[in-house]
Amino acid sequence: MGNWDAAFFGDMPEPQNEITTMLVETATWWAGFLSPADREFMESFRPRLELDLDGRAALCFHCSPRSYDDWIIATTPADDELRAILDGVEEKLLIGGHTHVQMVRRLGETMIVNPGSVGLPFHEWSPRPVRISPWAEYAILSAQDGRLSVDLRRVGYDVEAFLKLSLESGMPHADWWVSCWERD
After folding, report:
1. In the chain, is it the N or the C terminus that has fewer CB atoms within a 10 Å radius of its CB?
2. Residue 126: CB partners within 8 Å, gap ≥ 6?
């Protein structure tokens, strides 16, 4: 369960500025397209998912084990903030997202992996202005014989067609949305 999944079920954030106002208005519009079957499926999402990768315990979550609103980025201070976010977590492989930026980071014996975003990969972590990269991102994690492999990947797609569709869709703030994308 991610922050926007939760927003669709009534936990919509309070707009704090012009950008969050546009995001909330757009998300409200998107939520209007969810069918009862879509909502039922999304209600099955859990905040945390535990996996076994060849005997290695992995914990998956949206942003952190404690919240779908925390930020774990490459520069999150390890000694203060990151240790507090991960307090009580025993798994040594943590997989989360939320920041829309690919990352592999270590904290002692713990590896933190962010696969990025398939639909909205940020060019870099900077909340303002948002710049969206023209590709889809994901990660392949594999474990075998006690070894862990993390392969961060990107794949292109027809971004121009997607942006054209966005402009034609009636989506609120579509011009702003399109202006956020990096383009060739």
Report:
1. C
2. none
pLDDT tens for each residue of 38-56: 999 999 999 999 999 999 9
Assign residue 125 a region (left: φ > 0; alpha: ψ between -120 and 50; beta: otherwise): beta
Q: What is the pLDDT of residues 87-104, one digit of tens each?
A: 999 999 999 999 999 999
Q: How far apart are CA 63 and CA 66, in angstroms?
A: 8
Which single residue is written with the structure tokens 């997989």?
A: 95
Which residues, 6+ apart, have CB-to-CB distance to 27 below 8 Å? 4, 7, 8, 12
C-alpha–C-alpha distance, residues 145 and 54, integer Å = 7
Q: How long, in residues, is the chain?
A: 184
Separation in Å, CA 39 to CA 14, 19, 169:
22, 26, 21
In the chain, what are the domains? 1-45 (no CATH), 48-179 (3.60.21.10)
For the chain, the C-alpha Rg in angstroms (whole number) is 18
Looking at residue 44, the DSSP 8-state letter turns out to be T
Q: Is the pLDDT of residue 125 over 90?
A: no
Q: Which runs of E-coded beta strand occur in the chain?
A: 48-53, 56-61, 93-95, 103-107, 110-114, 136-144, 147-155
Point out which residues pair with 148 in neighbouring strands. 143
Q: Model's pTM, two decimal places?
A: 0.91
